[in-house]
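Quick check before the chapter quiz. The format below is the same one you will see on the exam, so make sure you can read both the input and the output lines.
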Amino acid sequence: MPPPDLPLARRADTPTPGWRALLGRTEGRLLAVGLAMTAAIGAAVGVGLMLAPAATLNYAAVVGLNLVIGRGAGMSFGSASGIAPLELIVLNLAVETAQVLVVYPLFVLGWQQLIDTRRIAPQLERLRVAAESGRGSVRRFGILGLFVFVFLPFWMTGPVVGAIIGFLIGLRVLVNLTVVLSATALAIVVYARLFEQIDAWATALHPYAVFAVIVALALAVWIVRRWLVRSPTRAGPPRGGPL
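Here is the expected output.
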C-alpha cells in the first residue's frame, strides 16, 4: 500500500524500537549495510592517506565533491586528476550506493516514526520537498519514469531523491532500489566515458577546465536557488509568524 501523503508528527510518548527490532525490518538492515559501507570507505581513505597520501587525496576529493556538489563535479575532477575510468566508476558507485543505503532508510524509518530524526529533520524535509516536486511525473510513467529521473543529470534528480520518490509512490523496496541503483550505475558509466572524451579535448586549454565550469555552474544554481527561496520573505514575515 502506498505511504500516506504526509508524515505524521512523532508523538512524545511513542516508544522507540530497539536496534534488534530495527534490524528485523528491511530498512533497518539496509541502514546497517549503508553505515558499514560508509565506515569502510572512511577506513580505506584513512589507510590510503598513510600509505599513498598524494593519490588518496585525489580519491578523497572525488568522494567529497560527489557528496557536496554532485556526481559531475566529483567525476570531472577525478578524470582530470588521472584516475582510471574503471576506478572512477567503482569509487562513485560505492559512494552513491552507500549514500542511498543510509539516507533512504533514515527517511523511511523516520516517516514511519520508528526512529527519532528530529536532529536531521531540515535535511530530510528538503529531500521530501524535492521528491514531492518530481513525484507526479514519475508516478505517471512508473518504473520507467523513476529510472529516467535518476539517470538524467538534472538538478535534484539523484539516486537519493529517486529512492524517496519510489517510496512515496509505493514501490516495493527491492524494486525501488533495483531501479534506482541500476540507473545510477548506468549514469556513472556514461559520465566516466563522457568526461574521458571531454577532458582529452579540453586538456589543451587546461586539465581542470571542465571541472571549473561544472563548479561555476553549480555555484550559480545554488545562488539562484537561495535568492528564490529568500525573495518571497523580503516583504516581511508571514502573517502569524514571529516578528
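If your answer matched, good. The two ends are 43 Å apart (CA to CA).
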